Known about the structure:
Blueprint: E1 4-7, E2 10-13, E3 18-24, E4 33-39, E5 46-52, E6 57-59, E7 67-72, E8 77-82, E9 91-101, E10 104-109, E11 113-118
Parallel strand pairs: 2-11
Antiparallel strand pairs: 1-3, 3-8, 4-5, 4-9, 5-6, 7-8, 9-10, 9-11
Amino acid sequence: QVQLVESGGGLVQAGGSLRLSCAASGSILSFNAMGWYRQAPGKQRDLVASITNGGSTNYADSVKGRFTISRDNAKNTVYLQMNSLKPEDTAGYYCNANRMSWGKRYDIWGQGTQVTVSS
């Protein structure tokens, strides 16, 4: 089974930037899409951004214009460039890989990386 390992989280001041990386142990082309989700304490895990094999992207309204998702298929890595960070972006960020098979969705998750934005 492919494993996902996130890196790049940390503590940053409001207005700063971070770049998250998600390295897969196998080919990310075997999935329909890759994505980043985030979860703050006591809240549900929500989609931040996703990218399909074809390169189509989707963003949560709260991050549009500030975050950019990208992928390097040769390196089996997905990135999340986060600019103009706000305290409300503070959360655990999780990499996701998903595929559809026979009408059912299968998900793989990384262990997460913490992003803390100070005001």
